[in-house]
C-alpha cells in the first residue's frame, strides 16, 4: 500500500525506540483492571469490581499481600494464592526493569564522565 504524499498535511510516521511498557508505578485503576483481566482471567469476573471499588492503582497493586487480598474481600485461599503469584511475577518483572535502568544510567554516566575528562 502506497501512502498519498500529495497532501500538504502529510507527516511521515516516525518510529520511536521507546517500546517500553508503562511503568507499573504509574498505572491507573484501568491499567490494573487490564492487568487483572489478562493475568488473572479466571478470577477477573469475581474480583475485578473489588479492585476497582478499592481504587487499586499500580503502586497499591505491588504492595498487596495475602492478608491485604483477604481484607479486600478475596476469601478463597486458592484464589488469593493464584492472584498473589501473579502479583509476585509483576513485582519481579518491575524490579528487573528498574535494575536494568540503573545499570543503563550508570553506563551512560561513566561514558559521559570518560568523554568529559
From TrEMBL:
<protein>
    <submittedName>
        <fullName>Protein aveugle</fullName>
    </submittedName>
</protein>
<dbReference type="GO" id="GO:0009898">
    <property type="term" value="C:cytoplasmic side of plasma membrane"/>
</dbReference>
<dbReference type="InterPro" id="IPR013761">
    <property type="entry name" value="SAM/pointed_sf"/>
</dbReference>
<dbReference type="InterPro" id="IPR052268">
    <property type="entry name" value="SAM_domain-containing_protein"/>
</dbReference>
<feature type="region of interest" description="Disordered">
    <location>
        <begin position="1"/>
        <end position="20"/>
    </location>
</feature>
<feature type="domain" description="SAM">
    <location>
        <begin position="27"/>
        <end position="93"/>
    </location>
</feature>
<dbReference type="GO" id="GO:0007169">
    <property type="term" value="P:cell surface receptor protein tyrosine kinase signaling pathway"/>
</dbReference>
<dbReference type="InterPro" id="IPR039144">
    <property type="entry name" value="Aveugle-like_SAM_dom"/>
</dbReference>
<dbReference type="Pfam" id="PF07647">
    <property type="entry name" value="SAM_2"/>
</dbReference>
<dbReference type="InterPro" id="IPR001660">
    <property type="entry name" value="SAM"/>
</dbReference>
